[in-house]
Amino acid sequence: MGWGDLGANWAETKNTANLDEMAAEGMRFVDFHAAASTCSPSRASLLTGRLGLRNGVTHNFAVTSVGGLPLNETTLAEVLRQDGYITGMIGKWHLGHHGSYHPNFRGFDYYFGIPYSHDMGCTDTPGYNHPSCPACPRGDRPSRNLERDCYTDVALPLYENLNIVEQPVNLTRLAQKYAEKATQFIHHASASRRPFFLYVGLAHMHVPLSGTRLSTDPQGQGPYGADLREMDNLVGQIKDKVDRTAKENTFLWFTGDNGPWAQKCELAGSVGPFTGSWQTRQGGSAAKQTTWEGGHRVPALAYWPGTVPANVTSTALLSVLDIFPTVVALAGASLPRDRHLDGVDASAVLFGRSQTGHRVLFHPNSGAAGEYGALQTVRLGPHKAFYITGGAKACDGKVGPTRRHEPPLIFNLEDDAAEAEPLERGSAEYQRVLPEVREALAGILLDVAGDKTSRADYTRDPSVTPCCDPHQKACRCPAT
Questions:
Q1: In which domain, by residue range, is 189 found?
Q2: What is the average pLDDT score of the chain?
């Protein structure tokens, strides 16, 4: 399961009873990271086990994108389907929707969801956003808001396999539809007595927040708390279905695809202690789109009763990149042999036999500073080195300056989770770590240069925009 814009301190809201139960019965990771700090690159890495410099996806695809995740990249669904699994994808895709880039052509037997983020199209139920966005226009009524953050021309589509079944989608009912489709998929897959793989990519906690439960929110915690509780309820429904059908033989992995979107202010969620204080003093946000901890450190839980030990907290350094090789190993399937992976098999950590994950992890630039996908932030054990820094847009609209650092800034996260004060360049600790950082960075760049890499097509063409009826205003169609 993967969710968007889920801050590192999600449990603060006390609205996660089902997730808390999963944590009590499974394993919680406290040093887990998205593979990038924006949607498409992180999701591409989840499904390939490879960083954007290898799989070609370095920034987000658009409503008008012709391409998507390169077709010569092998997805986790393709590997498992070849090994006999029934494969399903429910929720946000954001890896290309046109032609062969659709999920049904990327290894998934079944798809139900939206092709990109749910703020990338107007709806009749626009929910809470900052700035607020209007509902889809009707008839000859013009759009009432030309804010560039609002998509007012084309309605958000909902797909079932290759067909648009609703446009615009009703966001207030979407979470429950996902829960129903997920439980149906699990039921049918279990009845077939074949193994199954289900990838659920929810809209939560990305804006717009639907506020479905806001009117009955007993804790009065506003749209974010209500949306978080809605997500928790959906997770609980999926977990309950698994527990009733195949509890001892089904592995659940919950995580997010990047940190909170700070420019959305009170709708963004919390980065917890990972405030990126060095950056925020310069200006701008240190959350989504950045390589500061608040941009990519995300919650993660593993649940598999009888296999994953209960009520355990792991300190292993792990990443969304590790889902691909770990799941393939657990399934007894074979990894692609003609390309290098950046993820590691974390089975030993999951089974409680090890606390060792990555020694080195690389955080790609995701829009705040530097070239998209470039590796200029290096995590080495407890240390983190920045060759480039920059903030994303903050709630106040400000963006911090881009700064290049040679030699790099290095922080010790064990002593300084807020990334407030870099090590003194003349200190013994800095001088000891610097050569290892340089060696690790040079090593991966050399490895990528010699690898089979892909290049995504980011061409745009308005004709590929999903539209069930181009003769209707905003491509409006009734639900089927």
A1: 2-358+458-475
A2: 93
Does the pLDDT at position 458 exceed 90? yes
Q: How far apart are CA 285 and CA 358, in angstroms?
A: 27
In a domain, 164, yes or no: yes
Q: In this predicted model, what pLDDT tens digit does every residue of 76-106 receive, in sequence order?
A: 999 999 999 999 999 999 999 999 999 999 9
Q: Which of 33, 59, 94, 383 is catalytic?
A: 94
Indicate if 94 belongs to the active site: yes
In a domain, 377, yes or no: no
User: What's the total number of domains in the chain?
Assistant: 1
Can you give the CATH number for the domain in which 8 is found? 3.40.720.10
pLDDT tens for 18-73 read 999 999 999 999 999 999 999 999 999 999 999 999 999 999 999 999 999 999 99
Is the pLDDT reported for residue 3 higher than 70? no
Residue 213's pLDDT is what?
Answer: 55
Q: What percent of the chain has pLDDT over 90?
A: 85
Cis-peptide, bond into residue 299, ω within 30° of zero: no
pLDDT tens-place string over residues 184-209: 999 999 999 999 999 999 888 999 99
**Residue 438 counted as domain residue:** no
> Is residue 444 domain-resident?
no
Q: Quote the tokens at residue 368.
A: 């705040």
pTM: 0.95
Q: How confident is the model at residue 222 (pLDDT cuts 50, 70, 90)?
A: confident
Catalytic residue chosen out of the listed positions 39, 122, 467, 475: 39
